[in-house]
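Batch manifest, entry 17 of 40.
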Amino acid sequence: MFTGIIEAIGSIRAMEPRGGDVRLRIATGKLDLADVKLGDSIATNGVCLTAVELPGDGFVADVSTETLARSTLKGLKVGAVVNLEKALQPQSRLGGHIVSGHVDGIGEVVGREVSARAIIFHVRAPDELAKYIAEKGSITVDGISLTVNGVRGAEFDLTIVPHTVQETNIGSWLPGSTVNLEVDVIARYLERLLLGEKAAHAGHDGGITAAFLADNGFMK
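Output type: structure tokens
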């Protein structure tokens, strides 16, 4: 588990195709690896990766075809800058929100504007994720725990303060940039709980519809 509070910015040193998937070598910059051991998890642009080698200046991780299909990692080039966070420890402060490192989908930056010293980004999420995104709720974008400041259909707004711009790769986002999205895990569990006994039926797609809410007394 992670918090979405980025600890360091790293860079991709090598991408090696291996039997259909990819092995990444990541330089971790100022990230302290003294307490990291083989098998530990490090979130990379919001993707939970397992360290399989620790060469000293970073770590090496294998990226499965599932992860490549669901995230922006497949499009990274050598030299690309990435956000890094080590796994949460029980005694750590939960400065952001609960983040699993399991990417739900890929979003697209569709707008960027300056507001005083902040930058406002407009991001379009996949349609199927829109129901999990709420104004003033939390969302993880490229591993960063952020607050949703506005919602319009599948588009949402983020207001980014200078410190976050300085400490992450967010300053490089431009219209057309793609980003990894992880929705609030509480929203996902709430959806599942609302299904009740219907969740046990394999034929149910797991979605909450207006008809379902009406049939179960949530709407008049």
